[in-house]
Design brief:
- By secondary structure, this protein is α/β, with parallel strands linked by helices.
- It contains 16 helices and twelve strands.
- It has helices at about 5-20, 25-35, 80-95, 120-135, 155-165, 195-205, 210-215, 235-245, 265-275, 335-345, 350-355, 355-370, 380-400, 405-410, 415-440, 450-465; strands at about 35-45, 50-60, 70-75, 105-110, 145, 225-230, 250-255, 255-260, 285-290, 300-305, 325, 345-350.
- It has a seven-stranded mixed sheet, sandwiched between helices. It has a five-stranded mixed sheet with strand order 1-2-4-3-5.
- The structure holds nicotinamide-adenine-dinucleotide (NAD).
- Nicotinamide-adenine-dinucleotide (NAD) binds near residues 231, 306, 307 and 329.
């Protein structure tokens, strides 16, 4: 990996490539591209052993063309201002692509979460939330964090509770953060939403017959062999749902190295193995790969980088054998690598589209918190009654009786999880169609990433033009 890597520069290269196709002034495009607010924080932490440590953190709100802004909080020892700015800008474009009415934001705390006790992590999370609140960088209508690498529902519950202590009179305070545990105002399906969205997005991509023909593949995700880098939240759930759809997992890479088995890997058993041993290495029936990057070069149809940025570079792009690169992670492919893959005819399904499932379901969670009632609660019984009356009418007119099982199946009303998954699938499907329409409009001169960025920039430009400028 090149040490000169600047994540923001990489994102901006794809922005500039797309902006060339957008009918807007260079000045307005510059405004769309720039990060609107960058907040740097340094606060002290008392460690369990009594020592004092300075914790560095950032919150970046990339675009205020829509509010609140939205984006995850990352806990990683490699976090820096450049990384958080790049991730915040990707969030803006991602929200625009999947029609989620938020501006983009991102948070980062520069720690290796594995090196801190749960108690220390809780105090770090609460102090970070307090620092955000102090400068009005958090709130249901201001800026709404979510999980990212190194954080999950537990940390989001701490954020929600801290905010609630500070803004107790705010009736909507639980909408200040998403990705919370369901028992704390979270929504069913949020935890697995990004991985599920990756799977839905790939189903869309693999259903385009002409693209599959060009790649020498059959349409459909079923039977496609895939490799995942990073078996965390995004990677695990993407793998699980892809396997459920009929794809075959043939390789996995983690920090400690990778494994490969052309006959297929049982993802649930592998997770058990990883939990017990702390590594994927040594999984029965699979060959070990010494470096985590080796798995990216395995023979497969789809490569799903789902760990972190800057993984496919000019150095290893020529060695990637997959015909489809499915960006579960943010920024896994450098701009140079992207060009090399494109020149070789590889279909790159870009992060700004493919991993947008998380923010889409976060949007549903935010709506649930604002309406103070879960989706499906009001209409489930009513729908069941209506379906039963309809089935009764069918029975009367045909003279045939449905079985009890058939009645239960056909007359089921939707639970929250059904509505969440339906909304997610629809969002991913509509967005893919819109990206393809941009490609058609531009006479297929652009790849999927550029088309997705054109789509995003055009929507943001329209928002600026319609809103006018303040003051
Ligand atoms: P996570 O912390 O749950 O999982 C990351 C996984 O990658 C871990 O299992 C870790 O061990 C592994 N990993 C780290 N470095 C690696 C390396 N060099 N090689 C192989 N494996 C490595 O994080 P996550 O939430 O799954 O996020 C992963 C990526 O997806 C990030 O780029 C994140 O920004 C992006 N993303 C996450 C979400 C979300 O909802 N969590 C949404 C959109 C995008």
């Amino acid at each position: 990996m090149a040490d000169t890597y600047q994540f923001t520069e990489e994102v901006n290269k794809s922005f500039d490539r797309a902006a060339a196709f957008v009918d807007a002034s260079p000045e307005l495009l510059e405004q769309v591209k720039r990060c609107n607010s960058v907040y740097y924080i340094a606060f002290p932490l008392r460690r369990e052993n009594g020592s004092l440590e300075v914790i560095e953190a950032w919150r970046v709100e990339h675009s205020h063309h829509r509010t609140p802004t939205k984006g995850g909080i990352r806990f990683s020892h490699t976090v820096n201002a450049d990384e958080v700015m790049a991730l915040a800008s990707l969030m803006t474009y991602k929200c625009a692509v999947v029609n989620v009415p938020f501006g983009g934001a991102k948070g980062g705390v520069r720690i290796d979460p594995k090196k801190y006790s749960v108690n220390e992590l809780e105090r770090i999370t609460r102090r970070f939330t307090f620092e955000l609140w102090k400068k009005a960088f958090i709130g249901p209508g201001i800026d709404v964090p979510a999980p990212d690498m190194g954080t999950g529902p537990r940390e989001m519950a701490w954020v929600a509770d801290t905010y609630n202590q500070l803004a107790a009179s705010d009736l909507n305070s639980s909408a200040c953060v998403t990705g919370k545990p369901v028992s704390q105002g979270g929504i069913a399906g949020r935890n697995e939403a990004t991985g599920r969205g990756v799977c839905y997005g790939l189903i869309e991509a693999c259903n385009v017959g002409e693209d599959m023909k060009r790649l020498g593949l059959k349409p459909g995700l079923e039977g496609k062999r895939f490799v995942v880098q990073g078996l965390g939240n995004v990677g695990y759930y993407a793998a699980r749902f892809m396997v459920e759809t009929g794809a075959v997992l043939v390789g996995v890479s983690e920090v400690s190295g990778g494994i490969a088995n052309a006959k297929g890997i049982d993802v649930e058993k592998l997770m058990e193995h990883k939990r017990e041993r702390g590594t994927v290495l040594g999984f029965p029936g699979a060959a070990n790969l010494p470096s985590s990057l080796d798995a990216l070069e395995l023979d497969c149809d789809i490569l799903v980088p789902a760990a972190l940025e800057n993984q496919i570079s000019a150095a290893n792009a020529p060695l990637v054998k997959a015909k489809i690169v499915a960006e579960g992670a943010n920024g896994p492919t450098t701009d140079d690598a992207d060009q090399l893959l494109r020149a070789r005819g590889v279909l790159v399904v870009p992060d700004v589209y493919l991993n947008a499932g998380g923010v889409t379901v976060s949007y549903f969670e935010w709506l649930k918190n604002l309406q103070h009632v879960s989706f499906g609660r009001m209409e489930k019984r009513f729908d069941q009654g209506a379906y039963r009356r309809l089935l009764k009418a069918v029975e009367t007119s045909t003279g045939k009786q449905f079985s009890v099982q058939e009645l239960d199946f056909f007359a089921r009303g939707a639970d929250e999880i059904d509505l969440v998954n339906s909304g997610l699938e629809e969002s991913m499907s509509v967005a893919y169609r819109q990206i393809r329409q941009v490609q058609e409009r531009l006479e297929r001169r652009v790849d999927l990433r550029t088309a997705a960025m054109v789509l995003a920039i055009e929507k943001i430009v329209v928002a600026y033009e319609e809103l006018g400028l303040f003051p």
